[in-house]
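This part of the workshop introduces the protein records we will be handling. An example says more than a description, so a record of this kind follows.
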Amino acid sequence: MPPSNTRFARTRFARVQVSSAFGQAMEIVDRTRMCKTIYEELYERKVKKGECVRNIVDCTAHGNPFPTNLDRDPPAAGGGPPKSQKDVLKQALEEEVGLLEFGIRLDAHSLKRRTH
């Protein structure tokens, strides 16, 4: 690579690193709303029909527990990370809770992650 292109390559690489600081895209997707929208369908498929919904959960719910507000959302017992949105969704499906209860749990989870 000629010296004139080296500077350009370093600049481009630095931009990629900044945009992926948390291993996720910079675009904003309202995953809370998505989870609430599909929960009834997931519930029907998993609980009533016995279908595997793991792939749908993986694609919809946010699986990374960070970034979060550790003052409101402390690490789990034993030093593990706080619950992720995916954990909340999976637990609700396992416990077979209704849409209203799931919405309450998801809103509480979102509130704990806020910074202010």
Remarks:
- The chain has one domain: 26-113.
- Residues 26-113 form one domain.
- Confidence is low (pLDDT under 50) at residues 12-19.
- The CA atoms of residues 69 and 114 lie 6 Å apart.
